[in-house]
Design goal:
The protein is globular. It has helices at 40-52, 61-65, 73-77, 84-96, 103-119, and strands spanning 2-5, 21-25. The longest helix is centred in the C-terminal third of the chain and has 17 residues, at 103-119. It has a domain at 59-133: Lysozyme. Helix 4 runs antiparallel to helix 5 (103-119). The chain has a two-stranded antiparallel ribbon with strand order 1-2. The chain has 5 helices and 2 strands. It has 144 residues and is mainly α. Belongs to the glycosyl hydrolase 19 family. Chitinase class I subfamily.
Length: 144
């Protein structure tokens, strides 16, 4: 596991111009750093598969970002509405969503807004997942 940080507050072009960077490794890395784990084609294919494939009860990230996903009654009750916040919930909801304000989520939003600005597109609404229940559980986590 890595501790991730964004840029620093006074970084040239702002804190989100530098992307995520690995600050330091936490714990024992195990064998994933061996040369046998560095197949770029496999890495790319697995990333595309994850982006495109729904994993019930989660929709695909692709369907969310393209507006093809419509929340069910259960999704609405869990505050999961169309927008970038649901993508964060799909990717890492069990660790980052339903906890109120979370610096990891705020960094994701900052990077997302920056790239939307570069591409000249609107980031849309519902960017945060702080008030969403994770797809993996039925309860909001107390933020205290």
């Amino acid at each position: 596991m890595y501790q991730l940080i964004g840029g620093w507050p006074s970084a040239p072009d702002g804190p989100y111009a530098w992307g995520y960077c690995f600050l330091r490794e936490l714990g024992s890395p195990g064998a994933y750093c061996t040369p046998s784990a560095t197949d770029p084609i496999f890495s790319f294919k697995s990333a595309i598969w994850f982006w495109m494939t729904p994993q019930s009860p989660k929709p695909s990230c692709h369907n969310v970002i393209t507006g093809r996903w419509q929340p069910s009654d259960a999704d609405r009750a869990a505050n999961r509405l169309p927008g970038f916040g649901v993508i964060t919930n799909i990717i890492n909801g069990g660790l980052e969503c339903g906890r109120g304000s979370d610096s990891r989520v705020q960094n994701r939003i900052g990077f997302y807004r920056r790239y939307c600005k570069i591409l000249g597109v609107s980031p849309g609404y519902n960017l945060d997942c702080g008030n969403q229940r994770s797809f993996g559980n039925g309860l909001l986590v107390d933020s205290m």
